[in-house]
Amino acid sequence: MAVFRDEPLREIIARITGGERVIDVVDPDLGRGHYPGEYVEHEGVRYVHRPLRLWVDLAERLGLRLLLPRAIEPPLVRLTFEPLDHGARLRATADDPTERYGADSAFARISKLEDPGFVLDFAEALERVTLPAAPRILDLGVNTGDELALLAHLPDATLVGIDHSASAIAVARQRFPRAQLHVADLNALAALGLGRFDLVIAMSTLQSAGIDDRELLRRIVQDHLAPTGAVLLGMPNCRYVDGELEYGARMKNFRQPELGLLVKDVAFYRKYLQQHHRQVFVTGKHYLLVLGVVGSSV
């Protein structure tokens, strides 16, 4: 059993990547208020403090799962890591391209409402939007309606959602009967005659296969946005593996996140919205949110 007291992190990483899966370290609670790398002392023995967040992040970066730490002889806790089954990564595999993210797909297991970062960042973005008393809100790529659940505090809002998955829309209609939900291709948005909106939301939509994200953004701003309307765009910056949420956009043959394409897209959206007289905020972690508003109430 490996016990680590003041060894450098690089040595611990080497041991874990070399196959060491159970290690004993100083209880992170002992060093509350200390930063990683500072020393804490117990009964005359010095230990390097490392908070629980550090161990969680390390497990994620190494493609491992950290089990719940177990207290052993004070001041130590036992950390157990186990490899993730990367064959269990969620993928869009349906033969029908419109149902790759439908109600029967692997991605139906995911609820963004259980991602604290998404819920908090989405709520903060809405706080920056000045909406009229009875706003019209359009959700592009609404799927089963997780974003609509975060708009429940707007009882007088007209909620309109579009998705090309008939099965996802069927679920959303059961969850939100007052919403106006359409099964449609976003490339044919103009044919729906939806009018203009005070807020247009597009979460994990612009990067979808078969979507020209630049052209869709132009159509949103030029055809469907009220003069003082706001735009909230969300780009996934994560992947789902064996029950875990892993940070970072991935590219083939890259072990770690590669954010180049994501940054390029965000830069374009930001510049385009600024050109159309919107103040732009970029926030988020697992989902990067690009918000364009006319002025700001916060």
Q: What do you see in this structure?
A:
With 298 residues, this protein is α/β, with parallel strands linked by helices. The protein folds into two domains: 2-83; 97-293, Vaccinia Virus protein VP39 (Rossmann fold), CATH 3.40.50.150. It is built from seven helices and 16 strands. It has helices at residues 9-17, 52-61, 116-127, 146-149, 166-175, 213-223, 260-275, and strands at 2-3, 22-26, 39-42, 45-48, 64-66, 70-71, 76-83, 136-140, 158-163, 180-183, 197-203, 225-236, 238-241, 244-247, 279-284, 287-293. It has a seven-stranded mixed beta sheet with strand order 10-9-8-11-12-16-15, sandwiched between helices. Strands 1, 2, 5, 6 and 7 form a five-stranded mixed beta sheet that branches. The chain is elongated, with a radius of gyration of 23 Å. The model has no long low-confidence stretch (mean pLDDT 94).
Question: What features would you highlight for this structure?
Answer:
298 residues, 28% strand, 5-stranded mixed beta sheet, single chain, alpha/beta
Number of strands: 16
Radius of gyration: 23 Å
Number of helical regions: 7
CATH homologous superfamily classification of the largest domain = Vaccinia Virus protein VP39
CATH architecture of the largest domain: 3-Layer(aba) Sandwich
Question: Whole-number average pLDDT?
Answer: 94
Strand order, sheet with most strands: 10-9-8-11-12-16-15
Name the shape in a single word.
Answer: elongated
What CATH calls the topology of the largest domain is Rossmann fold
Largest sheet: 7 strands, mixed
Sequence stretches where pLDDT stays below 50 over 5 or more residues: none
Question: Structural class, from helix and strand content?
Answer: alpha/beta
Question: How much β-strand is present in the residues?
Answer: 25-35%
String of helices and strands: EHEEEHEEEHEHEHEEHEEEHEE
Q: For the record, what CATH class of the largest domain applies?
A: Alpha Beta
